[in-house]
Specification:
Elements lengths: L13 H21 L12 H12 L9 H4 L2 H16 L1 H11 L6 H11 L7 H31 L1 H16 L23 H16 L1 H10 L8 H25 L9 H14 L15 H13 L12 H15 L5 E3 L2 E3 L1 H28 L4 H12 L14 H16 L1 H8 L19
Antiparallel strand pairs: 1-2
Helix pairs in contact: 1-2, 1-4, 1-6, 1-18, 2-4, 2-17, 4-5, 4-8, 5-6, 5-7, 7-8, 7-9, 8-9, 9-12, 10-11, 11-12, 11-13, 13-16, 14-15, 15-16, 15-17, 16-17
Length: about 450
Amino acid sequence: MKNNRPSSKHPLNYSQTLALGFLCIILLGAVLLCLPIAAKDDQKTGFLNALFTSVSATCVTGLSVFDTATHWSAFGKTVILLLIQIGGLGFMFVVSLFSMISGKKMALHERRLLAETTGSMRLSGVVRLLRNIAAGTFIIEGCGALLFAIRFCPALGLGKGIAYAIFHSVSAFCNAGFDLTGYIAPSSSLLPYRNDPLILLTSAALIILGGLGFFVWTDLLHCKHHFTKWKLHTKLVVVTSGILLLGGWLVFFFTEAHAALAGEPLGIKLLGSFFQSVTARTAGFDAIGQGNLSEGGLLLTNCLMLIGGSPGSTAGGIKTTTIAILVLNIISTVKKRSAVEVFHRRIEEETVRQALAIIGTYICAIIVGSILLCCADPISSESAVYECISAIATVGLTTGITPTLSVFSKIVLMLMMFAGRIGGLSLLMVLSRKKQAAPLECPTERILVG
């Protein structure tokens, strides 16, 4: 007799499928980076450090136990570059792109996964969105590579200069934070170019474009500069990103003018503070020296790292729309309004609850992770919090303690990077199972808060 029962009692939901896909890519990357050919001088890299690098690259974080330029061979750098590109665009996006190229028709299940990966709010037009994202990504990365080549080619030669330019362009657009400037000074990130407007402004432009989100791209291209025609999501992303960018620039200028940027000309102070405001939002490139930041600068960097970029983008963090909803909910509560409203639109209660759940999840993870790091290693609580926020928000900025951490702390950071790349809401969905709703609602009772 034919068995018509489903093959699995608890089939994977979309978030679990995406998480499993990322996990497979990470493990494959770790195996490749363990090969002797992946490191310079054919020295085999230990599995834990290879796994850490693979997690960091796939989760577009940038935390690293080795200097990328001096430790990894051309093969190793290529593996890291591919992991960054796959991680930035999304596992399902890359799989769907290959399916489209091969002429295979996408099933409904694949379309739903792709919609979740790209942040699309509907299934119709997903294939067209895929083509637009792929074309836009490679055009933007190509333009960035051309600009980077102006600096790298004279210093490294044509072939190597172009390769380094492509690597940095992909890393910046994907908000990954990996760099190859170690050929100047190991583990220096963009510090050798702290006075170079071409390198810093090109990097900043790529970071911003990558962090806006694919859905916002489509809306802006379709509606152009007509603000009233933008979707509510686009309005919130653009306005919130602008406030964070300009506000961070202004505050960093005043906090770091006599700290990390002390002694620099006015133009360099403006450039450095602007880049810090951009890179703190999940990019991870360091152009002013995180260890030299003032206390105020460190605190602001923590806040910007935690917020991160926008949904459906290459960036991490709790996302700009999430923090916007939190602020709007506070305003609504103070004004005793029954609903959260903005731009003459009402935000669904379910969305507000999801935003609060995401923020709570991230804060709890940071607290637990920081405590574990302090227990495992002799580091300050400030450094532990900074490292944990950088990991779970997939930023990659560090005060320099990453290579010195114990095995246990590295495992904690890997778990946080993985959780951060999946996203707070998706992480909750990965861990949850659908249950039948109770037929009757529980009676309500008030409690005191605040």
